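#onboarding

Welcome to the new folks! Below is a worked example of what a typical request in this channel looks like: someone posts a single protein sequence, and someone else replies with the predicted structure as tokens. Don't worry about understanding the tokens yet, we'll cover that in week two.

Example request:
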Amino acid sequence: MLEVVLILLVVLAVLSVQTNTLRRAIVYLCVFSLLCSFCYLLYQAPDVAIAEAVIGCTLSTIIYLVALNKYKVFRVYYIIEKPKDTNSIIQKNALCKTLSNYSYEKELELDIVISDKNIEEIVTDYPYDVIVQHNVTNTTIYGDKSNYHFDDLISYIDINSSINVNHDYILEDEGDSLL
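Example response:
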């Protein structure tokens, strides 16, 4: 029984280091810690097992998940004015692939929301990091000046993508007009 637990500990340690997403790594570390506390029980150390279960498995996992949730979701609202056009779909797929690669490199969890709402409604009613507006003639990416990911994303698209994308800042201060 102890050998199986020790082998599982090694497997979970490797999985937590090799995984692609941080959230999955945190879950692997939580299970790793739980198995460590079970291993301490097998070694006749119940006090250490309880401390490991409470601190290692529960408390540290909650702290990691709260910290990860602070700013790791990258929400993109994608507005397509004419979604039936084949060229629009090809360009949307290419841009989504570029956004996915960017979020992977920055360790962000990409959340793309396809929307038919206008920009003003999204800005006032929904949480966003970037808004992409695509019509037949061009694609424009809108972002807030306070979002440091926006400038990085524009640079990344210019360097790593063949898509021609315009960009502009969304003004949210009192008295500023949108765009």
